[in-house]
Amino acid sequence: MNTVSPRPVVLCLSGHDPSGGAGLQADIEALMAQGCHAAPTVTALTVQNSIDVSDFRVLDAQWVLAQADAVIGDLTIAGAKLGMLGSVEMVDTVVQILKRLGDAPIVCDPVLRAGGGGALGKDEVGYAMRERLLPIATVATPNLPEARILAELPEGTPDQCAEKLLPFCRHLLITGGHGEEDQVHNRLYSRDGSVATFTCDRLPGSYHGSGCTLASTLAGRLALGEDIRTAVENALGYTWRTLRDADRPGAGQYFPRRLPVDFCG
After folding, report:
1. CA distance 21 to 100
2. pTM of the model
3. What is the 3-state secondary structure (H, E, C) of 62-79?
4. Rounded (5°) CA angle 82-220-59
5. Residue ranges of the chain with pLDDT lower than 50?
6. Tell me, what DSSP letter sits at residue 105?
7. Cα–Cα distance between 48 and 6 in angstroms, integer?
8. How confident is the model at residue 265, as a pLDDT?
9. Taking Cα atoms as reference points, which of 172, 177, 181 lies closest to residue 232?
10. How far is CA 88 from the centre of its chain?
């Protein structure tokens, strides 16, 4: 008889990346590595690879609602991770879904650009996420370029972006790594005024799916019951290790190695 306790289930609302470097596959692998179970609801389909994204299509809202309804009606949801939504209508659809999750922690990764620079939604999608999703999320995880879009500060520093965005969200993790500094600074801002800075060594190369990996790992750590600061620290540490061990299966960016080679035996 199977007596193993069920793993925490994290509902993932994001896009599908056919290269497997980012999107829902990144969510699934990262959550597996945390000891969680990913329940992936597809919000959009993309045409992309390790080099860049060339096109995307947002799914019909009713299809997304049906996917989420089937899961929520059957599984106990311990957390949620939001990734690529692609349209203002999809933002509204996801808001409907999240209202059914009670007090489960929600991690919002405002995906607006692919790692190669291609757009995965217009800036108005980011503004809709800021106005409608950030207020119900536990934490948002933009990188600095995304934070600047959300804050409407094209040259803003992390502190300036946080000042603009904290009225919308409880916690804000702005990730670094987009400059040339030897040390990457990731900053966790909270509405109570506290700021925690986490530093790590900058790794060479460019990576596809690092933001998805971080956000889904953070959702998993919160679903496991960790407090926000501990969850952020553990998620950043795990993500850094996946980048340290990354490989390059194509002609473009490196893919994080989210599962160990001997994971299954």
Report:
1. 30
2. 0.94
3. HHHHHHHHHHHCCCCEEE
4. 25
5. 116-118, 120, 263-265
6. -
7. 34
8. 40
9. 172
10. 18
